[in-house]
Every structure is written in C-alpha cells, then in structure tokens.
Amino acid sequence: MKKMLGLILAFALLAAACGDDGDATDDQSGSSTPERVVSLSATSTESLFAIGASDLLVAVDGFSNFPANELPVIDSFSPSVEAIAELDPDLVIISFDPGDLVSGLDAVGVATLVHGTAASVADAYAQIEELGAVTGHSGDAADLIAAMQEEIEELVADAPDGAGVTYYHELDNTLFSITSQTFAGEIYGLFGLENVADPADNGTAFGFPQLSDEFLVDADPELVFLADTICCGQDAATVAERPGWDQMSAVQNGNVIELSDDVASRWGPRIVEFAAAIAAALAAAA
C-alpha cells in the first residue's frame, strides 16, 4: 500500500507540474451514450454509482472499493489493453495514462475519458457533471452536485469558526503533506483553517511538500489530520511516539483526527464526508 501511495503521489505531482486541471482529454460530445464502461478511477467509480450509472460498469480498478461491488478488477497501474478489449467496452475512464494505454485503446476503437486529480472543488463538480453528460445522467449529476454543495455549505455554517486555527494534513508517515493550493486544502480553507505546510512549498513541490519532525514540532499545529490510517497504519498512538511530537498541542489536547485515506483523497461524492470530519474536529476542539 505504501508503494501504491507513493505512485499515486508521484502521478499527482506530475499532473500538477503539467498544469492538469482535472478536465477530460478526450471530447465525448456528440458521441452516443456508452453501454459498457470500464472505470480505472476509484473517484469516477464512486461518482457513477452516485448518479445512477453503475449499471454501465463492466469492470473497475482495484481501488474502486466503494460502494462495495463484485465487478471484475483491472490493474490500473499496468493495465492490459487486450484484457480491457476482451470486456468489449465502449468507454474507459482513467485518472492517468500509465504508458500507452490511451493510444492502445484508441487503436482498437475504444474511447477514453481522462479525469485527473481535481485541483479544486470546482474541478470535482465539473467531472461529475461531465460523467452525467457522457452517460446520459445529466439530471442526476446536477442533483448530486446541488446536494453536495448544500450539505457542505450547511457544515461550514454550523461549524465553530476555524479562522486562525492551524492544522497539518498527513498523506503518509514520511510526512508528505498538502498545501492550501490543493483540492483537499481548499476544503479545509472553507472552514477558515490555516495550513502549517504552506510555507514549506517553495514552488517545486506543487502543493505536496515533504516536511520534517522538526518543522512540524516547531509549527505546533492545533489539529493533526491523518490521511494515512489505512496505507501506513497511523493513529493517535503512533503519532505520539514520534520524536518531539508528545509536546505538540494537537497531541496533548487529543486533537489528532484519524481519517479514512479513501475519503480524504477522493474528490467525488464523499467530499461531504471529508468536510463533516473537519467540522466534527473543530467542534471537538472548541
């Protein structure tokens, strides 16, 4: 899992470096509604289920674990064009192109839709909207987006004022983090929270700086959010055992929040759950 997380982070950095805005690279306008879809993007899989288009799915990637399903699994890191073609899909959705997958599928007449890592909440909504348009579920997608927006607005309005409250968001136990310029950072920003990792990005980390124990102990964040509970087995107890971390305000005050890696890293329908976790942490710390 740690190796996979490293690969995911690498692709996220590459997407940021290339100016990826989360939009599709293939124009699906004017094409007929697909009847057989392969999703090699866990976020897109969740969105397809949420807009009522899951009946189109004939296979998913190994990370597509929500909602629970028994669909055939395709390796998204080294996918076989031949294995995918055997499923006779008319659309394959991917979050990145591992090698020559897009060109290989194009050669056998299979359309692709690339939905890279969302750089903002607006990008996340745009991807859901596009999935709705492509699959003939535009109305369902619009309803989902409206519901997400309303729920997030309510969570922010009802949460304690987070202005000036500092936080650290952990991607893995080698202390890779995010800045406010990332998709997840924007969610924290809705609550007014201040990201201690922001000064660590000198422009070359593309929003994903790697910090150090010394940096974080000195920054002394009031809230610590762990998005590596699944990949790296981190929790409040392991954090407290790190050098100097027992002196950190968040550790001393019991404000180490254990997140689901999946919820915190995917930009689909469950960003509402992510926002709810932030709101709950603020309420508990108030």
Summary of the model, kept short:
This protein has 286 residues and is α/β, with parallel strands linked by helices.
Report the sheet with the most strands, covering strand number, pairing sense and barrel closure: 5 strands, parallel
Q: What sequence of helices (H) and strands (E) makes up the elements?
A: HEHEEHEHEHHEHEHEHHEHH
Using the alpha-carbon principal axes, give the shape.
Answer: globular
CATH topology of the largest domain: Rossmann fold
Number of helices, counting only DSSP H or I runs of 4 residues or more: 12
What is the CATH architecture descriptor of the largest domain? 3-Layer(aba) Sandwich
Any idea what the radius of gyration is? Answer: 19 Å
> What is the domain tally?
2
Percent range of helical residues = 40-55%
Layout of helices and strands:
Elements: H1 2-17, E1 37-40, H2 42-50, E2 57-61, E3 73-74, H3 81-86, E4 91-94, H4 101-107, E5 111-114, H5 121-135, H6 138-158, E6 166-170, H7 183-190, E7 194-195, H8 213-219, E8 223-226, H9 236-240, H10 249-252, E9 256-258, H11 261-265, H12 271-285
Parallel strand pairs: 1-2, 1-4, 2-3, 4-5, 6-7, 6-8, 8-9
